[in-house]
Structures are given as structure tokens and as C-alpha cells.
Amino acid sequence: MKISSAEFIKSATNPGNYPPPELAEIAFAGRSNVGKSSLINVLVNRKNLVRTSSTPGRTQLLNFFDINQGSFSLVDLPGYGFAKVPLSVKKAWGPMMRTYLERRECLKAVIFILDIRRTPREEDIQMLDWLEEFEVPTIPVITKIDKLKRGQRDKQIKEIATTTGLPSDVFSLFSALTKEGKDDIWERIEDALEA
Ligand code: GDP
């Protein structure tokens, strides 16, 4: 995919303030610190389109981005499992996410991101359950693969496959450091946009 432009459109919390559903949309989900911002920034060739979770503010909102002047949009969903977030925000996360996944008719796929070094936890499984419940096509990605040597990688991929119940070969493997996996993920996004 050739990216000629990537621009922040707006932040939203509920359907009343989502942008109009005119463009096909791809969303990104994962726990805080999983590497979601880094993945999006690598995909669109930008250092800082998406801010990392070390800068709070936009992080608990749905953030919408326009790609290639109205060609399609990307949505950075709020990272979950963030210890420092107030309880009220944590409670709002579930309904906000469910509503988006259930009602966003232009949503074509969710990139569901896991860290190669971490065993998936309750919120990850919750997210997968919703994706299944609302029949949202899912592109599972394991990121930070540069952090482990090959043998260790395979062991962790197996562990992640077992805990999520997904076959190990459905995961795209990615590293924001080496950019390995970037083309593969774009191909899957393009397929989802055309589906
Ligand atoms: P987010 O909270 O999910 O948006 O996560 P970030 O993209 O901010 O990444 C969290 C931390 O992990 C940052 O320090 C990143 O530099 C680091 N990181 C993200 N992706 C990778 C990766 O593929 N490889 C390595 N080595 N570090 C990564």
C-alpha cells in the first residue's frame, strides 16, 4: 500500500460523535503498551501520527484517521489494561468498545494485537469474544517479535495460540524495529477493505 497522506480526523466516545460512516474502516485493538501506536506509525510511514500511551489524553478515546485523502480510515481504539487509568474510565471502556464493534457498519476488520512476550489475559480474551459475537473480521498480529530469539518465538506463539484458541498460523508476525511483517499486514488490510 502506498501512503500519500495520513491525517487525524477526530476523537470520539460514542456513535453520536463518530465521523459519518462514509469510508471503509480498519481498527486497531490491544492492551496498553502492546505496541499499537508503533504498529500504526510503521504502517503509515509516520514517526508520530499516533501518540504512544506514555502520553495520556487521546488514549482513552476512539481516534479516527483519514488515509490517502478519503480512501479509507484507520481507528486507534483505546488500549486496555492500563493500571493508572481511573476506575470510571475503566468501566466506560467495555460499553464504548462493544458499541463501536456492534454498530459501526463501515468497520471492515480489527487488527487484534498481542505482545510476543506476554500470555494473553482476560481483557484480550474478552476482546476476541466481542469480535466473534459481532462477527467482525479479525486480523491477529503478534508484535515485538524482535525481542525474542527464534526458538523462544515459536514457543510463545504456541502458548498464545493455546490461550486464545486461535490456530498459530493465523497470526501475522510483526516488529516495529525491523518492520518485518509490514507488507503482510497491509495485504490483509487491503483484502479486508475489498471484501
Ligand atoms: P501502545 O501503548 O500499544 O501504543 O504501545 P507503543 O507503540 O507506545 O509501544 C510501547 C513500547 O514498546 C514503546 O517503548 C515502543 O518503543 C516499544 N515497542 C513497540 N513495538 C515494538 C517492537 O516491535 N519492537 C520493540 N523492540 N519494541 C517495540
TrEMBL record:
- InterPro entries noted in UniProt: G_ENGB_dom, GTP-bd, GTP-bd_ribosome_bio_YsxC, P-loop_NTPase
| EngB-type G domain boundaries | 22-195
Give the protein's function. Answer: Necessary for normal cell division and for the maintenance of normal septation.
Q: What are the BP-aspect GO terms?
A: division septum assembly
* Cofactor(s) demanded: Mg(2+)
- Alphabetically ordered keywords of this record: Cell cycle, Cell division, GTP-binding, Magnesium, Metal-binding, Nucleotide-binding, Septation
Family statement: Belongs to the TRAFAC class TrmE-Era-EngA-EngB-Septin-like GTPase superfamily. EngB GTPase family.
PANTHER family recorded for this chain? Answer: ENGB-TYPE G DOMAIN-CONTAINING PROTEIN, MSS1/TRME-RELATED GTP-BINDING PROTEIN
Name used for this protein in its record:
Probable GTP-binding protein EngB
Q: Which residues form the signal peptide?
A: none
| The keyword Cell division appears for this protein | yes
Q: Which GO terms describe its molecular function?
A: GTP binding; metal ion binding
* Gene Ontology CC terms, in alphabetical order: cytosol
